[in-house]
Specification:
The protein has 347 residues and is of the alpha/beta class. The protein has two domains: 90 residues, Winged helix-like DNA-binding domain superfamily/Winged helix DNA-binding domain (Arc Repressor Mutant, subunit A), CATH 1.10.10; 220 residues, Rossmann fold, CATH 3.40.50.150. It is 50% helix and 16% strand. It has 17 helices and nine strands. The chain has a seven-stranded mixed β-sheet, sandwiched between helices. Helix 13 links the parallel strand 4 and strand 5. The longest helix has 24 residues. The chain is globular. The mean pLDDT is 94.
């Protein structure tokens, strides 16, 4: 996925056609400020405040205790970005904002936008990461408050909602399976979806202690706490348990180095029952010769910044699994076509 600039008048259209040199200038300015303005709008609860009633600038200033001049400039951006409507000197939500930016929205993404503020701070370290090859410690330095963990977990949940059913439906589970481990599972949604398709199996989320503290309430909110429980721990350092029918991990391998991933797969192998299965989900790096996928390239760079990892190729997943002893290792084609990875294997 890529973005492009859409001219709003003839003059801008001619400028883009005749002066290609403006593109780099626009790319480091317009999306940056527009995106940051959206983050501020969510964080300052502007969308929540006008969720049910259009308000004037003065009413918003009084309600939220904000500076009138600065707030007016922010609202201008949100109107021009089609997140707010301005009519008769009052501001109201667009249909997109109603659908996505409220805590009770049909397709809520406000958690991801709050987490984007944390990512913004991480990116201050980009040049240092490129020089040293060492990413920041996301958990120690950026998820160091309960609020930040909550934003992070909710962001992961919002992403999971989009594809959880398809992933769950694509994972082979043997007849009579009862016990599943969801490593780094945060909210537990993936495990819940898999278990709902294969009763009476239940899922245990194995995640960092601080993650578990916020994830349990999110699972309860999602109505999946009846088939998901939680166990705090570090997947690379602590005992995973034993006799699992299925062990699943989504978007976790990109946090680890290649050596850590090899160790990770060996630990998974040891924790499974004979005949049990492993399933790992993630995103591929871009294929620069055949499929220059910008979103995956950006993701991989972001993972390097926030933990020192990156997206790995399907062959990497296969090598780790086979070296750990797994058989019938398979990269599912329908995900590969979408620049994603779903690897399954049997013990």
């Amino acid at each position: 996925m890529k973005f492009k600039f859409i001219p709003e008048n003839k003059e801008e259209e001619n400028l883009l056609k005749s002066h290609s040199e403006v593109r780099p200038i626009l790319e480091v300015y317009l999306p940056m400020v527009q995106g940051r303005a959206l983050m501020a709008g969510v964080h300052l609860k502007i969308f929540e405040t006008i969720a049910h009633k259009a308000l004037s600038l003065e009413q918003l200033v009084d309600t939220l205790s904000l500076n009138p001049e600065s707030l007016g400039l922010l609202l201008n951006v949100l109107v021009c970005s089609n997140y707010l409507v301005y009519k008769k000197e009052k501001y109201s939500l667009t249909e997109l904002s109603k659908k996505t930016l409220l805590p009770d929205a049909e397709c809520q993404v406000w958690g991801g936008i709050e987490y984007a503020r944390i990512r913004w701070k991480m990116l201050d370290h980009l040049e240092e990461v490129i020089k040293t090859g060492k990413g920041v410690d996301i958990h120690k330095d950026f998820l160091n408050t309960h609020e930040n963990w909550t934003f992070y977990q909710r962001s992961m949940y919002e992403h999971a909602v989009v594809g959880a059913d398809e992933i769950a439906n694509s994972i082979p589970v043997r007849e009579g399976a009862k016990k599943m481990l969801d490593i780094g599972g945060a909210h537990g949604l993936y495990g819940a979806k898999i278990c709902q398709m294969h009763p009476p199996m239940t899922s245990t989320v194995f995640d960092l202690p601080d993650a578990v503290k916020t994830a349990e309430s999110l699972a309860k909110e999602a109505g999946i706490d009846n088939i998901v429980d939680f166990k705090p721990g570090n997947a690379l350092k602590d005992d995973l348990g034993s006799d699992y029918d299925l062990i699943f991990a989504s978007n976790l391998c990109h946090h680890f180095t290649e050596q850590e991933n090899q160790k990770f797969l060996c630990k998974i192998y040891a924790a499974l029952k004979e005949g049990g299965s492993v399933a790992l989900f993630g995103f591929t790096p871009p294929d620069l010769e055949n499929n220059q996928n910008l979103s995956n390239a950006l993701m991989s760079l972001m993972f390097k910044v926030n933990s020192g990892g990156r997206n790995y190729a399907p062959s990497d997943y296969t090598n780790w699994a086979e070296s750990a002893g797994f058989k019938q290792v398979d990269i599912q084609p329908k995900f590969a076509k979408k620049n994603k990875i779903l690897m399954v294997g049997l013990k």
